[in-house]
Design goal:
Blueprint: E1 9-20, E2 23-34, E3 38-42, H1 49-56, E4 64-69, E5 72-73, H2 79-86, E6 89-92, H3 104-115, H4 120-133, H5 149-160, E7 167-171, H6 179-196, E8 199-203, H7 207-213, E9 216-221, E10 224-229, H8 231-235, H9 240-246, H10 263-269
Parallel strand pairs: 3-8, 3-9, 6-7, 7-8
Antiparallel strand pairs: 1-2, 1-4, 4-5, 9-10
Helix pairs in contact: 3-4, 3-5, 4-5, 6-7
């Protein structure tokens, strides 16, 4: 499987390695995220998907290799450069992460007030436009405690696109949503990506809806790429680990039990 053809890469990961202490999470990882496309990062829990998002956002630095955003080195960027790069990125955190003591309107207005000198009249117009794009202009005066989980996720998306970023990263955008809210969120990600001409990276475990909106799917396993390509190519992969993940098989390379001593050794140790 090969990288998806396109108008160039917005994010390039070259032979990247990263770990927490002695535990290696990503090992010699290389991939590209094409501009204007939806790329899905998938794989079993603990495979390093969210870590990739943290690396792109500059929250952590690679221990080896290169990570480029629109040709600029993220790993070697100083604080000022990284701050400027982050303004070109939007992030939808898992479960939304709204400010609970701010209204829906103020949550979306926050990045505009924090990062721009725009007058309040213009901030108001932008916030209403972003809320309208996610179908929640009428909920602008409500508090996060007064809206549903699906609505909160859409408010968080409006906040993520408030500064018109080139890249939007989604960390488990479908977690905990009912089928209707999940379908709405998936269609919204695809529509905003195409309408606004942005690039999207979606970390998700939801196969059906993620495969439906993704142009490129990358399956991470054991710190490396197990499969990469279009949803159809990944679904047809003969790799045992990819097959187990895509078809939700209980038996396969990913074991139920965490590695440890044998049952006999563990229980007999308590008798000594």
């Amino acid at each position: 499987m090969t990288d998806l053809p396109g108008p160039g890469a917005l994010v390039e990961c070259r032979n990247l390695s990263f770990g927490y202490g002695p535990r290696r999470i990503l090992d010699d990882l290389s991939f590209t995220v094409p501009k204007g496309k939806v790329t899905a990062l998938m794989g079993a829990s603990g495979g390093g998907k969210t870590t990739v998002l943290r690396l792109i956002g500059g929250q952590v630095k690679p221990q080896r290799g290169e990570l480029l955003f629109d040709g600029q080195d993220i790993a070697g960027a100083n604080a000022e450069t990284m701050y400027a790069l982050r303004r070109r990125m939007g992030m939808l955190f898992q479960f939304g992460a709204l400010f609970t003591d701010m209204s829906v309107f103020d949550n979306v207005a926050f990045p505009l007030r924090e990062h721009t000198p725009l007058p309040e009249t213009l901030v108001r117009d932008i916030v209403l436009m972003k809320l309208n794009a996610v179908g929640l202009r009428g909920a602008r005066d409500l508090m996060p405690s007064e809206i549903s989980g699906g609505m909160a996720r859409r408010v968080a998306l409006a906040r993520a696109i408030a500064l018109d970023p080139e890249l939007v990263m989604y960390d488990e955008p479908f977690a905990g949503l009912d089928p209707i809210s999940l379908g709405t969120a998936a269609q919204l990600i695809r529509r905003l990506n195409d309408t606004l001409g942005i690039t999207s990276i979606v970390v998700s475990h939801d196969l059906v809806d993620t495969f439906a909106i993704a142009d490129q799917v990358i399956i991470l396993a054991n710190g490396k790429i197990a499969a990469q390509g279009t949803p159809e190519e990944v679904r047809a992969s003969a790799d045992p680990l990819v097959h187990q993940f895509v078809h939700a098989k209980a038996e396969g390379p990913v074991r139920f039990h965490y590695p440890g001593p044998s049952v006999a050794d563990d229980f007999s140790a308590g008798l000594k």
